[in-house]
Known about the structure:
The protein is of the alpha+beta class. The protein has one domain (15-119). 27% of the residues lie in helices and 20% in strands. It has helices at 18-21, 37-46, 51-58, 98-102, 113-119, and strands at 27-28, 34-35, 59-62, 65-68, 70-74, 77-80, 83-84, 89-90. The strands form 3 sheets. The protein has a 3-stranded antiparallel beta sheet, with no helix packed on it. Strands 2-4-3 form a 3-stranded antiparallel beta sheet. It has a two-stranded antiparallel sheet with strand order 7-8. The chain is globular, with a radius of gyration of 15 Å.
Amino acid sequence: MELMEQEGYNYKFDPSACEACGGHCCTGESGYIWAKYDEIEKMATFVNLSVEDFATMYLRKVKHRYSLIEKQLAPDNFACIFFDESKKRCAIYPVRPSQCRTFPFWEQFKNDEDEVRKECPGIV
Length: 124
């Protein structure tokens, strides 16, 4: 088991926990899944769409930024549009946005380890 760690964080992350977790970091309250233009290009290519078609189908504009859209699973439970509910994992994993790649080492969790522990069973 190879634990991931990042400077400035008091916890480590065990990526092998993802298999059993079922995608807690991809589901839950409604929120934003930010994507930069170069990430949008990679995602569009991955799903065989032009950037324009990808944007129309999968993005929403929030001021000057773009977020992947969500799908509603239950009254208070949402998932990223690319969360595969049957496999319980990301359908575009190799090209997922950096927001997804950097989880659980987010600035907001640096001083709130309790919150990230609630969210992620891979925290050790």
